[in-house]
């Protein structure tokens, strides 16, 4: 901490502010004019007076504003997706946690508004700024890492810088006027110092001489309305310096860190224990390990005593002298500290010079505080448009101001011509009419105006028509403005420029986005730098256990805990879960993630991938606007389980039905077999009955035949006897 009574840092900062301000005056005036053009201040006071003297109105047809808004909407259509990638041996899980932390910073900082304002300044003034900082007052005094946008006219960069991110700048200043009350709210711990600071009224704002009939105000305009207020100038100065750091590497844990001298002095005093060759740095863990080893030692002694007792029992006499003494060594414990571990080579220490950013906060001529930030890059992150290898890039609006002026002048001329065309000019011979009477009656319909025929009647003079090119050129100028900002008809929803087929339209839209994607590369590079600075600040600020909640793209909540200390149930070791304070990580932005997309086409693509088994339904839901994603997933899981159960039940029913049908068929077949067997039995019975009947019939027939034969034989015998002949003759006669 610098001595607040030492004026050197203050005087240096104020002088740097004056020097840097002079160097950027020309650029600041152009940037201010660009901003005024975008907002509708497009005529100077002198130009407006000349037009009004001609009878023309200073018309403003602002084509720049909608073009900037359309381009800005393209670049900021969706929230950026931060991705942290582990470097070297860093933890992949912690990298995912850091990705969520960056999204958390985006949410609590109203990142959408910050990015939109930075992109707006990027298009209008040539550069936008995002400041990443630690707010010690947020989260009930625990502090948060946040970001906010800065007015480019409040930033003063080393004029000799050539880097796009001003990495080679010796200093970056942020200066603006505060009311005393405003300054006290920003720095509540320094109210006395703020009261003692000298007041100032100079906004140091460039003048462009443009008319403000539109009543569009800038900070200096608002300030001038409060001339009686007490204003103080504040300075934020950032510069790089080399500071000594101790790089420590713990071979037993794999942790690596950079420590300041005071942090290193505290570090080497930390206690440590070497137990049976194992290095333990937590007292609780050391005590638990000693207890475990002591229990094993006691068990070994009891086992040895049991062996000795068994020998004595078998021998029937004391055999202590014959049995070797128990070989149970004592527990080897060595108490030490991290300094001792360094001497033993368990911790390697290297002294290096590390680049850090120093921040100084000054109000008036009073140094409020200064500190060294834990980052290597400036926390003032620029978003440069057309970089000119100076801190003064060129904007797109500056490229089209001439076209905008042409549109305004053309439209003013057209309106003036229309006005004169409806108010016809009359040539009147001198003395032919009473001019007062003529002027009163000329505009009245059906009125007779007397005139002297010797001098001739009044003659109406028709104005010359404007060329058609004047109208077409105005439209061409509007199109040129859009093209300069990377906008084309199809990108703005102009259906007349669309091809006949859907795929051709998508392809043409993709081609049309190529220029806007070059702008997108600038935005993504700046956001990567924002993420890198933010992670450095997070690793210092978020050093204790803390719970975060992050809103997902589908508005669902994701909760996670960092630096959580847990005891392993198996090893009883104390571990820190999601320790973000160690490790190195690279930050990237999902390419094209902020550009607008066709939601239906994207959803169709993800549905196709889901049906092919490439992704799960969670990824599909992320591309929808479903609010309760977790609830939907739970309900769909329940529905899926019920459907599976129903399907299983249906399959069981089908199986049972099949079994029933099989059994029915088997029963039918069985019945048929029974019937066949019964028929066969009946048939056998019939056959047997028939055979028996046939035998009886044959016997009866034989008996009948025998009887007949016997009767025949008897008859033959009677016929052959004499008596029988007489009786026959007698019978014949009687007849």
Structural account:
- The N and C termini lie far apart (180 Å).
- The chain is 50% helix and 18% strand.
- The protein folds into 3 domains: 8-247 and 355-398 and 515-543 and 551-585, no CATH class; 252-345, no CATH class; 631-704.
- Strand 2 and strand 3 form a beta hairpin.
- Mean pLDDT is 80; it is low at 728-735.
- By secondary structure, it is of the alpha+beta class.
- It is flat, with a radius of gyration of 52 Å.
- Strands 4, 5, 6, 7, 11 and 12 form a 6-stranded antiparallel sheet that branches.
Low-confidence stretches: 728-735
The averaged pLDDT comes out at 80
What is the makeup of the main sheet? 6 strands, antiparallel
- Overall strand count: 20
Work out the strand percent.
Answer: 15-25%
- Name the overall outline: flat
Spatial extent as radius of gyration: 52 Å
What class do helices, strands and sheet pairing give? alpha+beta
- The structural domain count equals 3
Distance between the termini: 180 Å
Tally the helices.
21
Helix proportion range: 40-55%
């Amino acid at each position: 901490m610098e001595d607040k009574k030492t004026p050197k840092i203050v005087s240096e900062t104020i002088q740097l502010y004056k020097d840097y301000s002079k160097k950027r005056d020309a650029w600041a005036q152009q940037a201010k004019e660009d901003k005024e053009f975008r907002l509708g201040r497009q005529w100077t006071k002198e130009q407006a007076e000349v037009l009004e003297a001609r009878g023309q109105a200073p018309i403003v047809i602002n084509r720049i504003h909608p073009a900037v808004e359309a381009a800005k909407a393209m670049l900021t259509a969706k929230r950026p997706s931060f991705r942290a990638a582990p470097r070297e041996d860093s933890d992949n899980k912690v990298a995912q946690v850091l990705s969520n932390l960056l999204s958390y910073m985006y949410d609590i900082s109203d990142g959408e508004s910050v990015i939109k304002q930075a992109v707006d300044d990027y298009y209008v003034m040539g550069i936008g700024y995002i400041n990443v900082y630690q707010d010690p007052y947020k989260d009930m005094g625990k502090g948060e890492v946040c970001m906010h946008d800065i007015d480019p006219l409040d930033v003063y960069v080393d004029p000799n810088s050539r880097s796009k991110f001003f990495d080679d700048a010796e200093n970056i200043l942020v200066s603006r006027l505060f009311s005393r009350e405003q300054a006290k709210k920003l720095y509540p711990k320094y109210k006395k110092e703020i009261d003692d600071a000298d007041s100032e009224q100079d906004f140091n704002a460039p003048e462009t001489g443009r008319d403000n009939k539109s009543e569009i105000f800038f900070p200096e305009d608002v300030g001038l309305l409060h001339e009686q207020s007490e204003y103080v100038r504040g300075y934020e100065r950032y510069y790089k310096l080399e500071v000594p750091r101790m790089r420590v590497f713990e071979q037993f844990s794999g942790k690596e860190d950079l420590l300041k001298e005071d942090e290193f002095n505290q570090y080497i005093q930390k206690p440590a224990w070497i137990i049976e060759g194992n290095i333990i740095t937590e007292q609780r863990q050391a005590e638990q390990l000693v207890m475990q080893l002591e229990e094993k030692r006691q068990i070994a002694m009891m086992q040895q005593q049991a062996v000795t007792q068994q020998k004595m029992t078998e021998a029937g006499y004391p055999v202590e002298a014959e049995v070797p003494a128990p070989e149970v060594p004592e527990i080897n414990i060595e108490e030490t500290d991290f300094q001792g571990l360094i001497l033993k080579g368990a911790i390697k220490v290297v002294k290096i010079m590390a680049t850090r950013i120093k921040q100084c906060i000054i109000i008036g001529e009073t140094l409020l505080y200064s500190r060294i930030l834990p980052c290597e890059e400036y926390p003032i992150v620029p978003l440069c448009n057309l970089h000119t290898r100076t801190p003064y890039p060129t904007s797109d609006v500056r490229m089209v101001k001439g076209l905008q002026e042409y549109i305004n002048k053309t439209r003013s001329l057209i309106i003036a011509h229309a006005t004169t065309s409806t108010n016809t000019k009359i040539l009147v011979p001198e003395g032919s009419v009473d001019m007062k009477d003529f002027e009163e009656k000329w505009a009245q319909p059906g009125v007779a105006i007397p005139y002297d025929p010797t001098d001739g009647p009044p003659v109406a003079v028709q104005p010359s028509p404007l060329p058609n090119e004047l109208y077409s050129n105005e439209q061409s100028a509007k199109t040129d403005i859009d093209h300069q900002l990377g906008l084309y008809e199809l990108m703005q929803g102009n259906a007349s420029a669309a091809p006949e087929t859907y795929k051709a339209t998508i392809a043409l839209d993709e081609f049309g986005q190529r220029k806007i994607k070059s702008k997108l590369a600038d935005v993504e590079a700046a956001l990567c730098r924002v993420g890198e600075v933010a992670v450095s600040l997070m690793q210092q600020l978020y050093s204790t256990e803390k719970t975060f909640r992050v809103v997902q793209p589908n508005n669902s909540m994701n909760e996670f805990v960092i630096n959580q200390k847990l005891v392993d149930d198996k090893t009883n070791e104390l571990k820190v879960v999601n320790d973000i304070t160690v490790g190195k990580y690279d930050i990237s932005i999902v390419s094209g993630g902020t550009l607008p997309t066709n939601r239906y086409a994207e959803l169709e693509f993800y549905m196709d991938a889901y049906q092919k088994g490439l992704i799960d339904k969670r990824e599909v839901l992320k591309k929808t606007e479903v609010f309760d994603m977790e609830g939907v997933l739970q309900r769909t899981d329940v529905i899926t389980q019920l459907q599976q159960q129903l399907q299983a039940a249906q399959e069981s029913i089908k199986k049972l039905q099949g079994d029933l049908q099989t059994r029915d068929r088997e029963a039918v077949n069985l019945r048929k077999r029974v019937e066949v067997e019964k028929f066969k039995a009946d048939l056998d019975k019939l056959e047997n009955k028939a055979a028996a009947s046939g035998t009886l019939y044959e016997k009866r027939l034989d008996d009948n035949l025998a009887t007949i034969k016997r009767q025949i034989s008897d008859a033959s015998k009677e016929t052959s006897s004499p008596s029988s002949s007489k009786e026959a003759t007698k019978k014949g006669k009687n007849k």
